[in-house]
Amino acid sequence: MNALRKEAIWFYALISPWLIGFLVFVLGPMIASFIISLTKWDLLTPAKFVGFKNYEKALRLDPLFWKSLKVTVVYSVFSVPLGLIFSLALALLLNQAAWGMRLFRTIFYMPAVVSGVSVMVLWMWIFNPQIGLLNTVLGYFGIAGPGWIFDPNWAMPSLVIMSLWSIGGGMIIWLAGLKGISPTLYEAANLDGANAWQKFRGVTVPMLTPTIFFNLVMGIVGALQTFGQAYVMTKGGPMNSTLFFNYYLFQNAFENFSMGYASALAWFLFVIILALTLVVVKSSDAWVYYEGERK
Fold first, then answer.
1. pLDDT greater than 90 at residue 27
2. Positive or negative CA dihedral for 267, 269, 272, 276?
3. Spatial contact of 57 and 261, defined as CB atoms under 8 Å apart
4. What is the pTM (predicted TM-score) of this model?
5. Could you tell me the CA-to-CA distances from 19 to 14, 27, 28, 152 in Å, in that order?
6. CA 14 vs CA 19, 134, 290: distances in Å
7. CA-CA distance, 144 to 175, in Å (whole number)?
8. Nearest-CA neighbor of 69 among 84, 79, 59?
9. Alpha-carbon span 226 to 223, nearest angstrom
10. Nearest to 86, CA basis, from 162, 197, 180
11. What are the tens digits of pLDDT across the range 204-262?
């Protein structure tokens, strides 16, 4: 028992930095956020307890709550699948045993590690209707380019296109998954006379389902927390067409000084992300295959 007790003491001593960090920087702020969400607080005067009125306001009285939620969902519905598809296609191309592949992998990965604000400033120039790169190139072909982020009808598609800039991060994860597929599976498929599409559908995709699962969860979580594009590039406009939920939360907290309402919005976002993540996790038993796992 003394040995077990000493082992337990050392265990908790060694993980204490993580425990302290979790309590101080994660669990503590979450509890404080929930308490604040039950108050009316402008950061300058004492908080006033109002119960669940902030949540009721969001659901029943605030049309921008639903607008920002819709904008975020639409962005996620398009950006997440496109990001998965394009990053997988890129990984398949760069998984070939050819000269210079390491260089090309580095080149395609580099945009994923560039500072977010600098990337957004770059894309603001690319999307500029008068002197932007996109409309200049389209002009060479006699095509009048749209207003992009300055047009309510094109602002959201513009940001979805921009989201593909960082597919290099997902590409690296896909490459790791592709490298983990045993060559013997492809050899067996060749002996059965499978063509390239049949090998992709019958070997590559099933063996990549754990990678699909990881990239899907991370993509959903990341897309639902989109903030920088609206803050730096569009300020939620034009006509609230890019009013992402996180940016609307920020506006209420630090522009309108409605910290109680902003905290309630944060909890709505937490519950939505948690629910979607649980749905994906629960459904994974039906479509995620782990090598060596028996069902």
1. yes
2. negative
3. yes
4. 0.91
5. 10, 10, 12, 46
6. 10, 54, 32
7. 39
8. 59
9. 5
10. 162
11. 999 999 999 999 999 999 999 999 999 999 999 999 999 999 999 999 999 999 999 99
Asked if the model's pLDDT at residue 281 lies above 70, the reply is: yes
Residue 33 scores a pLDDT above 60: yes
Taking the C-alpha atoms of residue 267 and residue 225, their distance in angstroms, rounded to an integer, is 13
Instruction: Please give the C-alpha separations between residue 120 and each of 86, 95, 162, 229, 230, in angstroms, as whole numbers.
Output: 20, 29, 9, 7, 10
Asked if 265 contacts 245 with a C-beta cutoff of 8 angstroms, the reply is yes
Question: How does DSSP classify residue 249?
Answer: H
Tell which phi-psi region holds residue 239, choosing left (phi > 0), alpha (psi between -120 and 50) or beta.
left
Tell me the two tokens of residue 37.
Answer: 């969400």
Q: What is the rounded average pLDDT of the residues 66-76?
A: 96
d(CA 185, CA 191): 10
* Helices 167-179, 63-93: crossing angle, 10 deg rounding: 50
CA distance 246 to 228: 9
Q: Is residue 115's pLDDT more than 80?
A: no
Query: Each residue of 164-192: pLDDT tens digit?
Result: 998 999 999 999 999 999 999 999 999 98
